[in-house]
């Protein structure tokens, strides 16, 4: 009887396991919400606003572009600028006619132009453009990753820091972005041997100086370069962009940063629990994700061309074999590439690779040399 009861219990356990129905909870991340990403600065440049809609979590794509909307920027003097739609959800200003001014208040207005289930108008809070101090110093320091031993050298990385001091501009909340560029040199004599790769920051870099005894920033860590990439192999440059923000925007980015630290990455979908500064005028209960930023900005560039010990050779596994120089190579240019032509050696051979990035630097960068590449001085 006891065995029979156990069999019945086991059967009841197996029944729910045999048929699994996907459950998607009714949370706001599962609704299509408008996502606004935009920044207006005081520089003579094109400003970009991007509109997308967050898709339910069970969709393969997390966002879809919003097309055909009217996007305008208004200031507190009654001026208005209509942005041009360029596709894929992007709307841009004309750099010849619009440039943000410190002290002005700017409001973003978005209109769906009628039709469909999202026939709404949206508006941001008026945002003041605050002044921003210059970056006083941008510098790097070597960091010992591993002291090494008698058999292997020490391994070094590089930490990039900045100093900034508020000089009466009235800025206590800061945010930074950076754009890094480094030279790629393949160790083989191939046509596309030297390139430059560029990468934009994805980290949330912010600082609040209101609680400090002095309104200044010292040794703020911007970016760490490990020995596992080729960024430090030849020549590296980083352009750091410093923004002035208000306390509300600082709180927004701080919440985003904490979520990124908990999850290990920044999701394409902005969590609906984080309120931005944009609202739906005719449907107040509808949440709008993202933030309309208005910031003065300043920049500074740093070049690094030092030698660092223990840098990893990322091309160590490129050579996948060799063949006689006169033998035809099946799949040449499709999935096999020649990285060493030893036709005049004894015996004549060709070394091949199955990794195109080992034979063509344009897989990781561009052959166009950056305009600033030979200007090895700090820029402000």
What does this structure look like?
The protein has 2 helices and 23 strands. The protein is mainly beta and 380 residues long. The chain folds into 3 domains: 28-129 and 248-294, no CATH class; 135-245; 321-354, no CATH class. The strands form 5 sheets. Strands 1, 2, 3, 6, 7 and 19 form a 6-stranded mixed sheet that branches. Strands 4, 5, 8, 9, 10 and 18 form a 6-stranded antiparallel sheet that branches. Strands 13, 14, 15, 17 and 20 form a 5-stranded antiparallel sheet that branches. A hairpin with an 8-residue loop joins strand 11 (135-146) and strand 12. The chain is globular and about 80 Å long.
Short summary:
The chain has 380 residues and is mainly β. The protein is built from 2 helices and 23 strands. The radius of gyration is 27 Å and the shape is globular.
Span between termini: 85 Å
Mean pLDDT: 86
Q: How many helical stretches?
A: 2
Rg from alpha-carbon coordinates: 27 Å
Order of helices and strands: HEEEEEEEEEEEEEEEEEHEEEEEE
Low-confidence stretches: 1-28
Strand content: 35-45%
**SS elements, strand count:** 23
